[in-house]
Write a structure and sequence with these properties.
By secondary structure, the protein is of the alpha+beta class. The protein has three domains: 286 residues, no CATH class; 115 residues, no CATH class; 58 residues, Arc Repressor Mutant, subunit A, CATH 1.10.10.410. Helices cover 39% and strands 21% of the residues. The chain has 15 helices and 16 strands. It has a nine-stranded mixed β-sheet. A three-stranded antiparallel β-sheet has the order 5-4-15, with no helix packed on it. The chain has a two-stranded antiparallel ribbon with strand order 3-16. A hairpin with a 4-residue loop joins strand 13 and strand 14. Helix 5 runs antiparallel to helix 6. It is elongated, with a radius of gyration of 30 Å. The N and C termini lie far apart (83 Å). Bound molecules: adenosine-5'-diphosphate, magnesium ion and zinc ion. Zinc ion binds next to loops.
């Protein structure tokens, strides 16, 4: 029998607000244990939460970017559970009225456009971290307690690990375009729970799902999904039945194990948090949020493909980075250059420089104006393409104009015909052997052009050298 996999994801993203969701403690990562804490985020009795307005703004922004309806009124609820990483014994989250509902996320898998619907996006607080130490036992670090999260819950629309991966990549790129999450996977900024079921191909009813926790990377998600699909097929093929349960994925042992079954499913006893009032997003605020959404990655990807004549890989590489996409679009908007010319620089020398230095475009002084100037200087023959590459580092590192850098480095190409003619005539006079060879019918053009370039200290315009050399040799 052939089976179809059905996958739904619950994705958590840490928001990059400066302070926590219900207190003014810092959200900074990597601080000494329990140094970013106060009575509110350590759950001291009587301490009262005050919602960080920025969290609402960021969550609504993600909702707008994913086509959700953003509720103008939403509320906060307590999700009760006991675990030492959460001192209040409840997490403040959103239950029946989340901030965003019913969205759609589009992405490409092998050239085919897919859609995964979002059931909801809500905001909530992160829990602390348990650090297990052989000598000191388990230490609880409350620095992460109260770091704001958004949870994005999909409908069960994904059908393979490849689709799940591309969906996750698109969520990540969108978060980075909106500048609401640092997207540092290694710091746990994006985490997901994965729900998997299988059903015979053609079946429309959903099968029993298994939820997998502890997935920290997108490649880990692919491994976890592929493992779970294979495990479920094996159970069913052997006459067994899938149990609704939660399993823990181990990305080292590459297998999952049961955490809890349906029988010991938790009852969180959600109820409205009496310490927090309802959140209202009024019209002006809603307009402000909408005005901050840039053209999104998929729209740019499609535009680069269809209008700029880029390949799928090129379009993807640039649209994946907001800064690179902005650079390309602003440079193109000047109308002075072809978008493809700017894209070539971004994909090759600019990306290489950033990779080598391990920095982001936004850490540098490169601007669209400078890129346009560079391309124009090369196209006008003022500098050679090779000289352009030499100019680039200073474009990243200084505030000088490209003209000024070219001038300072003495890279201006000599295009003055009379100056080049003098050089060409000198080279012919000093290379009698090559001239003899030329007369004997040998091809010595390359050699003589090289000599001319050398005599011009690399600054002679090669086209003009070629032209004048042919002219002078023709006279012999
Ligand atoms: P819970 O609140 O218990 O986690 P939900 O019904 O909200 O359960 O579903 C959580 C996730 O599981 C959602 O992403 C949803 O799309 C997914 N899901 C629900 N049913 C299935 C199923 N049969 N197969 C795969 N995924 C499913
Ligand atoms: Mg769940
Ligand atoms: Zn605090």
């Amino acid at each position: 029998m052939k089976y179809e996999a059905v996958i739904g994801l619950e994705v958590h993203a840490e928001l990059s607000t400066k302070s926590k969701i219900y207190c003014s403690c810092s959200t900074g990562f990597g601080a000494p244990i329990n140094s970013h804490t106060c009575p509110v985020c350590t759950g001291m009795p009587g301490a009262l939460p005050v919602l960080n307005r920025e969290v609402v703004h960021y969550a609504a922004k993600m909702g707008k970017a994913t086509g959700c309806a953003v509720n103008s009124l939403c509320k906060s609820d307590r999700k009760n559970y006991f675990y030492p990483d959460l001192p209040k014994a409840y997490q403040i989250s959103q239950f029946d009225v989340p901030i965003c509902e019913n969205g759609e996320v589009y992405f490409y898998v092998d050239g085919e456009k897919k859609c995964c619907r979002l059931e909801r996006i809500h905001f909530e607080e992160d829990a602390g971290k348990l650090l297990h130490d052989e000598i000191d036992g388990t230490i609880v670090d409350f620095n992460r307690c109260g770091v704001p999260l958004i949870e994005m819950v999909t409908r069960p629309d994904l059908r393979s690990s490849a689709e799940a991966k591309e969906f996750l990549e698109m969520i990540k790129t969108t978060l980075s375009y909106l500048n609401i999450c640092d997207c540092k996977m290694e710091e746990g900024s994006i985490r997901c729970d994965i729900n998997v079921s299988i059903r015979p191909e053609g079946e429309t009813e959903l099968g029993t799902r298994v939820e997998m926790k502890n997935v920290n990377t997108f490649s880990g998600a692919v491994r976890a999904i592929d493992y779970e699909i294979a495990r479920q097929i094996e159970v069913v093929e052997n006459g067994g039945e899938i149990q609704q349960e939660t399993r823990r994925w181990d990305d080292v042992k590459l297998k999952n194990t049961v955490m809890r079954t349906k029988e010991d499913a938790q009852d969180y006893r959600y109820f409205p948090d009496p310490d927090l009032i309802a959140v209202e997003i009024d019209e002006p605020w809603m307009r402000k949020i909408e005005s901050e959404i840039p053209e999104l990655p998929i729209a740019r990807y499609e535009r680069y493909l269809n209008e700029y004549g880029m390949t799928a890989m090129e379009a993807r590489q640039i649209s994946d980075s907001f800064a690179k996409a902005e650079l390309l679009d602003q440079a193109s908007k000047s109308g002075k250059i072809k978008p493809k010319a700017a894209a070539n620089w971004i994909l090759s020398d600019i990306s290489k420089y950033l990779n080598d230095k391990g920095i982001e475009l936004t850490d540098t002084k490169l601007t669209a104006q400078k890129l346009v100037d560079l391309i124009c200087l090369i196209e006008a023959g003022t500098i050679s393409g090779a000289a352009g590459k030499k100019v680039l580092p200073a474009m990243f590192e200084t505030d000088e104009t490209v003209e000024a850098i070219v001038e300072r480095m003495g890279l201006k190409q000599v295009s003055d015909e009379s100056a080049i003619l003098t050089i060409v005539q000198g080279v012919i006079a000093n290379n009698s052997k090559a001239v003899e060879d030329f007369k004997a019918g040998k091809n010595v053009t390359g050699f003589l052009v090289g000599q001319c370039m050398k005599a011009s200290k690399g600054q002679g315009n090669p086209q003009i050298i070629n032209k004048l050399l042919a002219q002078e040799l023709g006279k012999l």
